Amino acid sequence: MKSHLQPFLHYLSGDKGLSPNTLESYGRDVSQFLEFAEERGASQPDEIRRSHVMLYLGSLRGAGRATATLNRNAVSLRAFFHYLLKERLIEQDPTLDMETMKPDKKAPMVLTISEIEQLLAAPDVSTPQGVRDKAMLELLYATGIKVSELISLNVDDVNTDMKFARCTGTSGKERVVPIGTLAAESVSAYTSLMRDKLLRDHQEEQAMFLNSLGGRLT
């Protein structure tokens, strides 16, 4: 099955523009999973089932891997099977609708579940600004990224099909974080319906989240 790994990485490099470090992580994650699946009788991509993916992630968790590592592996596998499905090498994606774990939080939760739900429901989604704000809140809640990282996102940094966002921290280091279904749907609603309404005369603007003048939020 590893014969599909290099074409997959080439696809990510060419079509998705991922950095060499990120590509290395994807390659390592997928390679280790394929070895795991082959040891359990799956010698071809179409023989891999959802149970193989869940067992693999469970083995990583049992080995004491951090939530961020589990989620990175989930993103890598989701991207790999999305590619296989796109290339018609499999008929079903075993990672379809597979949610990722919430990131570990160093700080205590200061909002109740009810308060979070009220916050997410607060934006007026009948307006472009409201749809934008809901997408931003959903991304913040789903990923745990910083606000500075959120407003630094460009359109190409968020892939709602494969459900990941590519962030660059203050140190300049790039990392890939998973996003859940609700966040992906909110971002899709914003980019497909409302972002163009905020662009105005800034058609060249690459920022994901725009202010009322069509520029990047600050």
Quick summary:
The chain is mainly α and 218 residues long. The chain has two domains: 2-86, Tyrosine recombinase, N-terminal domain (DNA polymerase, domain 1), CATH 1.10.150; 113-199, hpI Integrase, Chain A, CATH 1.10.443.10. The chain is 52% helix and 6% strand.
Assign a percent range to the helix content: 40-55%
Radius of gyration, taken over Cα atoms and rounded to an integer in Å: 18 Å
Distance between the termini: 46 Å
Largest sheet: 3 strands, antiparallel
CATH superfamily of the largest domain: Intergrase catalytic core
- The residue ranges in which pLDDT falls below 50 over 5 or more consecutive positions are none
Compute the number of strand runs. Answer: 3
Task: Give the name of the CATH architecture of the largest domain.
Answer: Orthogonal Bundle
CATH topology of the largest domain: hpI Integrase, Chain A
Tally of separate domains = 2
Q: Write down the secondary-structure element order.
A: HHHHHHHEEEH
CATH class categorisation of the largest domain? Mainly Alpha
Share in β-strands: 5-15%
- Total number of helical segments? 8
| Spatial arrangement of strands, main beta sheet | 1-2-3
Provide an overview of this structure:
The protein has 218 residues and is mainly alpha-helical. It has two domains: 2-86, Tyrosine recombinase, N-terminal domain (DNA polymerase, domain 1, Orthogonal Bundle); 113-199, hpI Integrase, Chain A (Orthogonal Bundle). It has helices at 5-16, 20-39, 50-62, 67-86, 113-121, 128-143, 147-151, 181-199, and strands at residues 158-159, 164-168, 174-178. Strands 1-2-3 form a three-stranded antiparallel β-sheet. The radius of gyration is 18 Å and the shape is elongated.
